[in-house]
Design a protein that fits this description.
This protein is an alpha/beta fold. Helix content is about 35%, strand content about 15%.
């Protein structure tokens, strides 16, 4: 019967049935595919699991709390494009370039950034964009380059970015890359292979080095130098303890552990007094944030100087366990030494602060920026003053936007993310503006006009921007160090050079050491002064 059916020629009715079945099957397959993929990603983006990764000047799908801020960036990008292609009311055309912000825009419980950290970073970057677009010279689009919540979808992002360097509005640089991981290093090396300058606002692992990768934050080694100066003034009883995150793919924690051992291991006996834990970020097997063994060991050894080589979001769990450890003598002070971008709000909540005070625990943080010291300071330098003005202006604007839930927290500046992302964009915009002026004979453009030379201005390339950043250096003069071409950022005055000694880490970057809770006036520790990265090059006389 079956063979007879196979040999029989299909009639019109049979063909109709086959066609109908095929259509149904195709529709079913399409339905399943659509159900498995996220909603339509839009131009420049593609589906990767349940995320839309890629690059866009428009709106991308991020955490719902970020909607208003993402839309604000897209609106400014649209205004910039219109100012070149179809300006209104007879205004002169103003050329523009593109700068890409490469980081996650979605989160989960173990992702590289929290929604609050993303919001603060994006707000700082957008504030810098708005400030740059209000000045003379070219304007800037801020491209959103989503490489996934775990930073592991960087390849399609880099592929897209490398194809934009020769556009009419060229890509001149990338910044972001918020975590020291193997994926971040691979992405930076891929960008370097295409000679695209990249700025890491908050990268600190000494392993984060690639040919075209600059870092506006100090390295873990430089942080340790600042802590060394602090400990020289406040040595404690000489008994230390090392607590480190053992996650395999966290280059930051592994590098910091090695730096602490190299700098303080012998003096504070860290090789014979240490414990590890499993951090929250990542997909390693096991229950994370277990500090009971570490807390008991710290109390048993009577260590008063704990070196913490882990992420900020794990630290409150160590504090809580240590504060409630029965074997501890809470009558004697303990300090936990750490490094970080700023003082993370999760470590300064009311509950944590109460635990710190009752257990006489002090957090000692070598930081990229100390925004807490800005409060009430009427003599702030121009860098932080300009940042604060632009940031608060943006915050007030979005506060009145009903679609924006403003997930910045009640301490939006404390962790330093907004400041460091602002400075990273500023490095690229300052370099672009300087190259633009040089290429166009120094004539530049007016705030609302084309080049004064009469013809269409020439926009700098990514190569021009790189060649400018490597000369944003601090200069030694007969009267001391001078900042002529360097960056006067919100986080301080610093520069870059192409020296193999500095490896594109910021030079003369201030590294404040913050104590929290701040000691009472009668119990203040001896101040060591603010360390400046590579200050020995200038005999301690950074500008």
């Amino acid at each position: 019967m079956l063979n007879r059916f196979r040999n029989r020629a299909l009639g019109p009715a049979d063909k109709a049935v086959v066609l109908a079945v095929g259509v149904v099957l195709l529709a079913a397959v399409a339905f399943v595919v659509v159900r498995l993929l996220p909603e339509e990603c839009g131009g420049g983006l593609e589906a990767a699991g349940d995320e839309c990764v890629g690059v866009t000047a428009g709106v991308l799908e991020g955490d719902p709390e970020l909607e208003g801020l993402i839309r604000a960036v897209a609106d400014e990008n649209s205004r910039v494009e219109k100012g070149w292609k179809s300006p209104e009311n007879g205004q002169a055309r103003i050329p523009y370039v593109r700068v890409a912000l490469m980081m996650p825009f979605t989160t989960d419980a173990t992702s590289a950034m929290s929604t609050e950290q993303i919001a603060r970073s994006l707000a700082g970057a957008h504030a810098a964009q708005l400030r740059a677009n209000a000045q003379a010279g070219p304007r800037y689009q801020l491209l959103l380059a989503n490489d996934g919540k775990d930073l592991d979808h960087w390849e399609p992002v880099v592929d897209r970015l490398t194809g934009m360097t020769d556009d009419e509005a060229p890509l001149v640089g990338v910044f972001g890359m918020p975590s020291s991981t193997p994926d971040t290093l691979a992405a930076a090396r891929a960008l370097s292979a295409h000679r695209i300058p990249a700025i890491g606002p908050i990268l600190t692992s000494t392993t984060m080095e690639a040919g075209y990768l600059f870092k506006t934050s100090p390295s873990n080694k430089l942080f340790a130098e600042a802590l060394r100066e602090y400990l020289e003034k406040n040595p404690g009883n000489g008994t230390g303890f090392l607590v480190s995150d053992r996650r395999e793919r966290d280059s930051y924690s592994a590098d910091l552990r090695e730096v602490f051992l190299a700098h303080f291991g012998e003096e504070y006996g860290l090789k014979q007094r240490q414990a590890s834990y499993l951090g929250l970020t990542g997909d390693d097997e096991g229950v994370p944030q277990r500090f009971s063994d570490a807390a008991r060991s710290i109390c048993l050894t009577k260590a008063d100087t704990v070196f913490f080589a882990g992420r900020d979001h794990d630290l409150p769990h160590l504090v809580g366990r240590l504060a409630n450890e029965p074997s501890c003598d809470h009558g004697k002070p303990v300090r936990i030494l750490k490094v970080g971008i700023g003082m993370d709000p999760e470590s300064t909540t009311t509950d944590i602060t109460e635990q710190l005070r009752e257990a006489r625990i002090t957090l000692v943080d070598a930081a990229s920026v100390d925004t807490r010291s800005w409060a009430g300071n009427e003599k702030l330098p121009a860098g932080p003053r300009g940042f604060l003005k632009q940031f608060e202006k943006l915050r007030a604007k979005l506060r009145n936007d009903p679609a924006h839930k403003q997930p910045w927290g009640n301490k939006p500046l404390d962790d330093g993310y907004a400041v460091m992302y602002y400075d990273a964009f500023t490095v690229l915009s300052q370099a672009t503006g300087r190259a633009y002026d040089d290429i166009n004979g120094g004539a530049g453009t007016g705030k609302e006009g084309e080049a004064e030379t009469g013809g269409a201005p020439i926009l700098p390339s990514h190569d021009d921007v790189y060649n400018t950043v490597v000369n944003m250096n601090i200069l030694g003069t007969q009267s001391g160090a001078s900042c002529v071409n360097c960056v006067r950022g919100a986080s301080g005055t610093f520069g870059f050079d192409d020296s193999p000694d500095t490896r594109k880490w910021a030079v003369c970057k201030p590294v404040p050491v913050i104590e929290y809770p701040e000691p009472a006036s009668g119990a203040k520790t001896k101040a060591a002064g603010t360390y400046r990265s590579y200050e020995d090059i200038f005999n301690g006389a950074c500008p």
